[in-house]
Write a structure and sequence with these properties.
Order of helices and strands: EEHEEEEEEEEEEEEE
Strand content: over 45%
Strand order of the largest sheet: 4-11-10-6-8
Number of helices: 1
Structural class: alpha+beta
Number of strands: 15
Largest sheet: 5 strands, mixed
Radius of gyration: 40 Å
Low-confidence stretches: 225-230
Length: 230
C-alpha cells in the first residue's frame, strides 16, 4: 500500500496529525467552556449564599455609666439590628462577671428586624473604675462573637482606711493600737457623727480628720487583752 507524498511529506500521516490536533483543540475549548460554566455556577451559588447571610449591627458596643456609689444598680439596653438578608440567630450570651446579668428579647431576628439585650450591673463590693464585658454569640459569619462593654466609676459612701485592722499576735495583759480614718465620699453635706464598737476589749480615741476638702473622723483603735489563762 502506497501513500501519497507531496514535497517529500506523507499526506496520510499529515492528515492524521492534523485531525488529532484539531480534536485536542476542540477538547480544550470544550473543557474551557465547561470550566467557565462551572465557575459561573459556583459564583452564583456563592452570591446566593452571601445574599442570605445575617449581619448583626449594634447601635453602641461600649456604655459608660459615669459615676455611681457602691450598692447602686446600673441598667442599660444594648440595641441591635439584623442588616443582612438571612435570619439572625443568637446562640448564646454570657458576661465576664456574675455581677452583670443579661437578658435577650428574642433569639431569632428576621432581616431588617431589631433586638435588645438588657444588662444589669450590681455595684456592690466594687470600688474605683470597673469594666465588665458581655459576649454575644450568633450565626453572623463575619462577626460570630460581639464583645460589649459596660464601664464606669464606683465610689463608696464612706471611706474607711484601712478596711480591716489586724493587731497581729498579742499576749495577755498587753495592748495594741491601730490608726483608723473615716470620711464621707458620697455627699458633700454628709458628716460622720460618731462610731460605736461592740466589744469591751476595744476602745476608740476620736479626733477630727481633714484632708483637702474632705472632713471625717480619725480614730486610734486600742485593744487590751483581758483573757485569763488556764
Amino acid at each position: 500500500m502506497y501513500s501519497a507524498r507531496l514535497f517529500g511529506y506523507d499526506l496520510g500521516a499529515a492528515r492524521f496529525i492534523g485531525a488529532a490536533l484539531f480534536s485536542v483543540v476542540i477538547g480544550l475549548i470544550m473543557a474551557t467552556i465547561y470550566r467557565q460554566e462551572e465557575r459561573e455556577k459556583v459564583m452564583q451559588t456563592l452570591e446566593t449564599f452571601e445574599e442570605n447571610l445575617p449581619d448583626i449591627q449594634f447601635d453602641e458596643k461600649v456604655f459608660d455609666f459615669g459615676t455611681v456609689y457602691e450598692g447602686a444598680t446600673v441598667i442599660h439596653i444594648y440595641k441591635f439590628k439584623n442588616i443582612g438578608q438571612g435570619v439572625l440567630k443568637i446562640k448564646n450570651i454570657r458576661s465576664s462577671c456574675g455581677c452583670t446579668a443579661v437578658s435577650l428579647t428574642s433569639k431569632e431576628i428576621e432581616p431588617g428586624g431589631t433586638g435588645e439585650i438588657k444588662a444589669t450591673f450590681n455595684s456592690k463590693n466594687f470600688k474605683v473604675r470597673i469594666t465588665k464585658k458581655i459576649y454575644v454569640h450568633s450565626n453572623d459569619p463575619n462577626e460570630p462573637i460581639v464583645t460589649l462593654e459596660i464601664t464606669g466609676i464606683v465610689k463608696v459612701d464612706v471611706e474607711v482606711n484601712p478596711a480591716m485592722i489586724d493587731f497581729g499576735e498579742i499576749y495577755e495583759g498587753e495592748s495594741a493600737y491601730q490608726k483608723l480614718t473615716v470620711h464621707p465620699e458620697a455627699l458633700e453635706k454628709l458628716k460622720v457623727k460618731g462610731l460605736e464598737i461592740s466589744s469591751k476589749e476595744f476602745a476608740l480615741n476620736k479626733s477630727k480628720y481633714s484632708e483637702g476638702d474632705k472632713e471625717g473622723v480619725e480614730n486610734y483603735c486600742n485593744f487590751e487583752s483581758h483573757c485569763s489563762s488556764r
